Amino acid sequence: MGDERVGKFVRGGGLQKKDFADQGVGCIHYGQIYTHYGIYTNKTKTFVTKEFAKKARMARKGDVVIATTSETDEDVCKAVAWLGDDDIAVSSDACFFTHNLNPKYVSYFFQTEDFQKQKRPYITGTKVRRVNADNLAKIKIPIPCPDKPEKSLAIQAEIVRILDAFTELTTELTTELTARKKQYNYYRDQLLTSAVVEAEWVPLGQIGEPRMCKRILKSQTSTEGEIPFYKIGTFGKKPDSFIPKELFEDYRERYNYPKIGDILISASGTIGRSVIFDGEVAYFQDSNIVWIENDENLVLNKYLFYFYQIIKWHVADGGVIKRLYNDNIRKSEIFVPFPNDPQKSLAEQARIVTILDKFDTLTHSISEGLPREIELRQKQYEYYRDLLLNFPTAEPQTKTVT
Questions:
Q1: In the chain, % of residues over pLDDT 70
Q2: What pLDDT shows up at residue 280?
Q3: Is residue 202 packed enough to be buried (19+ CB in 10 Å), middle (13-18) or exposed (0-12)?
Q4: Is domain 7-141 classified as CATH 3.90.220.20?
Q5: Is the dihedral of CA 221, 227, 229, 234 positive or negative?
Q6: How far apart are CA 137 and CA 315, in angstroms?
Q7: CATH code at 199-337
Q8: Which residue ranges of the chain lie beneath pLDDT 70?
Q9: CA distances from 141 to 97, 105, 173 (A)
């Protein structure tokens, strides 16, 4: 990519967050490339003064700005094409690529598996991963019809048009998902707190006692093993710790252990995250992961699961919750419909759960609903992106140029 026929990489420099101004000359800080920008932009999030801009490294319209540092190998070298009319300042820990290609074509190329493979040998650093501009210049980019500039740019533009269409579709689906989640949250709150006239606030302590598993010592765990051991950091995620099967069977038999359908709650870290226990063999960190021992005579577990999404955990006046203790849980209240008529109450809870299940499937399910559709469209986009930006080597009119 550093071939003089293609372009050159210029290091950003000097710009730090403390240099931001309310208005003035646009600028891109390397961290914003990860958090704020997509394939391209024609507006900057932040600015610097005109005086600062005079001494800054400036990217021009059509340049591609690249973040050259990151905490992960996957993210390093994320790129955004600058399509605004004015020159912009670029921070250190970033560089920009000045070239004669289609800017969005280049930006899409930086997302491909081909680019990822080529950059890996050039990644350096331990905690902070980086690729310098000199090594980026060694990476090869496929250019259609390189000896016919007009035809090449026309082909690049058509590839960009196709990829833009995929990106737009995914964006539309994501926007729709956001709207559906807002709708879901609204109806969930209404159904759980005000849709039923005859209802009362009931302390969780009247529904069941808080329970937790037996304490597991660090010396009893390993990074590999038979039984997953979920700590607060891996709760609801992939386990990174395990315990022996014999220990698990002994503790499950002698101490508290959740039954299928119980709602596990995070009692530290992000308070109140909940997971429905599906019965898969696993063990859970004591005091950090707890549950209400609920026989479902008064409240359905699934109703509890949805209510935990909006519950206000009890805390003494002026206090800040950093951990859920058993007393916090017992005194926290949920809204129970028809509390004096258990049969009618459970029927109404079941009706509410059925409605919320449908919304939840639409907005959260990875096997159906909008998240599944977005995942499929993203995979389709990635497939065609890599296909369109990776030309066969036997093609006489196509070359890869460094």
A1: 93
A2: 94
A3: middle
A4: yes
A5: positive
A6: 57
A7: 3.90.220.20
A8: 195-197, 315-321, 365-369, 391-402
A9: 13, 10, 31
